[in-house]
Amino acid sequence: MPFRRPATFRGSFGQQTASIGREGSASRDVGFVGSRDGLDIDTVDLAVEENRATWRRHGWPDGAIDVTLYALEEYGARFAELVQWTLDQWLLRLNSWCRRD
């Protein structure tokens, strides 16, 4: 499953917010927020340069934008490894908690 590019969603009041995640998950999250709050929300996939321009308008320095875009690509490329690591950490904590007297 490919990594979803950062997207912007627009609520009924014209607000814009970034939603980033794996393909499908960001749309589901945005859809959940919309239905929970009674909002009509549209999602729009944005190209890297569109995101860069949006983040610049919000005052992000170029270095922060570059690091964010790099991290998103790495995250997408290593998703299975990161999920496994997260589950392993959770299991270690659960095991530690269960062993408490």
Index terms:
three-stranded antiparallel β-sheet; 3 strands; single chain; alpha+beta; 101 residues; 4 helices; disordered N terminus
What does this structure look like?
This protein has 101 residues and is an alpha+beta fold. The chain has one domain. The protein is 58% helix and 19% strand. The protein has 4 helices and 3 strands, in the order ββαβααα. The chain has helices at residues 25-37, 48-57, 62-77, 79-98, and strands spanning 3-10, 16-22, 42-45. It has a 3-stranded antiparallel sheet with strand order 2-1-3. The protein is extended and about 50 Å long.
The SSE string, one letter per element, is: EEHEHHH
Radius of gyration: 17 Å
Number of strands: 3
Average residue pLDDT = 75
Tally of separate domains? 1
Structural class of the helix and strand makeup? alpha+beta
Strand order of the largest sheet: 2-1-3
| Number of H/I helices | 4
The portion of residues forming beta strands comes to: 15-25%
Overall body shape: extended
Kindly state the percentage of residues in helix.
Answer: 55-70%
Region (Disordered): 1-27
Helix-strand blueprint:
Layout: E1 3-10, E2 16-22, H1 25-37, E3 42-45, H2 48-57, H3 62-77, H4 79-98
Antiparallel strand pairs: 1-2, 1-3
Region (Disordered): 1-27
Compose a concise summary of this entry.
Residues 1-27 are annotated as: Disordered. Helix content is 58%, strand content 19%.
